[in-house]
């Protein structure tokens, strides 16, 4: 077994044995204990203390989105391997009987399932862009939203920090290039200050996403060269392979062009977002401070339980 795999599985086993995570029998799909949820809630409050004064419009969506909107977003061009769809039974009584027969025999029973109008949300902000577009041009000051959603990515793993279903909180900014790049610069500073207050080693680096295929490698290089995405990294699996717990993204006019979102003067709106991996930050806290929150450093507890 590779050294990284041993570390991942060792930490996962400790989390499950302690009761912080609850095993479901599927890699990357876990229940969470009350204590784990308490830490997530305290971190959620910390985010609000840093960003709440900005006057963002709060919106919360279910962990699924309109399939047509998903298709239009362009996600499948870059990440087809991560997408999750929702299918349902639409057959008659004969098809139902066949389904039950297959279940009894241990045979694949999903062949008769049909795709619905819903797909699983890959990132919290993907639901937002068509909503904003429908409202018309953003005002002269742009627009700012506070989102949170469960998200899905099909990448089963023994790494507890790489869950298939996880929560993402985001602040999403719409406006002119200057407005959105200023927003991202502000959160690059805020994010480092906020996470440093939690007493964990961290650093920020330019990042690129795992775009799919040969064209994807060109996209990844372009993203890195233009410094469109930064990640705040904290060691969870190892120091050599730190985990991205926050991301700071400048989309340029991609979503503005895709959805026809305009600024007050008729220009295509630019967008940027800061995303917080809620479970990943909780895991990082347990990794670095231990499973007994009462024994965490007093300074950290003062931040999370003010």
Features:
BirA Bifunctional Protein, domain 2; 2 domains; alpha+beta; 3-stranded antiparallel β-sheet; 306 residues; single chain
How are the strands of the largest sheet arranged? Answer: 3-7-8-12-11-10-9
Number of structural domains:
2
Content-based structural category: alpha+beta
Helical stretch count?
11
Gyration radius over CA: 21 Å
Largest sheet: 7 strands, mixed
Q: Could you give the count of β-strands?
A: 12
Question: Would you tell me the overall average pLDDT?
Answer: 93
What is the H/E order? HEEHEEHHEHEHEEHEHEEHEHH
Proportion of beta-strand residues: 25-35%
CATH fold-type name of the largest domain: BirA Bifunctional Protein, domain 2
Unreliable runs, pLDDT <50, ≥5 residues?
none
> Looking at this structure, what is the CATH superfamily of the largest domain?
Bira Bifunctional Protein, Domain 2
Give the overall form: flat
Report the end-to-end length measured between terminal Cα atoms.
43 Å
The CATH class of the largest domain: Alpha Beta
Give me the CATH architecture of the largest domain, please. 2-Layer Sandwich
The helix fraction, in percent, is: 40-55%
Protein name: Amino acid--[acyl-carrier-protein] ligase
InterPro entries: aa-tRNA-synth_II/BPL/LPL
Q: What does the model show?
A:
This protein has 306 residues and is an alpha+beta fold. It has two domains: 3-84 and 122-304, Bira Bifunctional Protein, Domain 2 (BirA Bifunctional Protein, domain 2, 2-Layer Sandwich); 87-119, no CATH class. Helices cover 41% and strands 26% of the residues. The strands form three sheets. Strands 3-7-8-12-11-10-9 form a seven-stranded mixed β-sheet. It is flat. It starts with a helix and ends with a helix.
């Amino acid at each position: 077994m590779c050294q990284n795999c041993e570390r991942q599985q060792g930490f996962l086993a400790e989390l499950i044995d302690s009761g912080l995570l609850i095993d479901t029998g599927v890699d990357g799909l876990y229940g969470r204990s009350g204590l784990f949820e308490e830490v997530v809630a305290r971190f959620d409050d910390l985010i609000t203390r840093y960003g709440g004064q900005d006057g963002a419009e709060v919106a919360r969506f279910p962990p699924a989105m309109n399939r047509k909107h998903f298709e239009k977003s362009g996600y499948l061009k870059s990440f087809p391997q991560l997408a999750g769809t929702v299918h349902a039974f639409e057959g008659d009584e004969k098809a139902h009987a066949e389904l039950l027969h297959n279940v009894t025999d241990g045979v694949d029973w999903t062949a008769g399932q049909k795709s619905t109008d819903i797909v699983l949300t890959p990132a919290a902000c993907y639901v937002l862009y068509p909503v904003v577009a429908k409202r018309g041009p953003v005002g002269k000051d742009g627009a700012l939203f506070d989102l949170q959603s469960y998200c899905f990515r099909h990448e089963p793993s023994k790494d507890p920090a790489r869950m298939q279903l996880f929560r993402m909180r985001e602040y999403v900014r719409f406006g002119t290039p200057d407005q959105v790049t200023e927003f991202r610069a502000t959160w690059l500073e805020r994010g480092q200050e906020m996470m440093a207050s939690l007493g964990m080693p961290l650093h920020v680096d330019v990042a690129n996403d795992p775009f799919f295929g040969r064209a994807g490698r060109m996209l990844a290089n372009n993203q890195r060269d233009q410094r469109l995405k930064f990640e705040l990294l904290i060691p969870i699996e190892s120091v050599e392979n730190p985990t991205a717990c926050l991301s700071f993204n400048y989309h340029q006019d991609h979503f503005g062009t895709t959805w026809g979102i305009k600024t007050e003067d008729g220009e295509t709106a630019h967008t940027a977002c800061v995303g917080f991996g809620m479970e990943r930050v909780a895991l990082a806290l347990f990794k670095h401070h231990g499973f007994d929150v009462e024994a965490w450093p007093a300074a950290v507890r003062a931040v999370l339980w003010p």
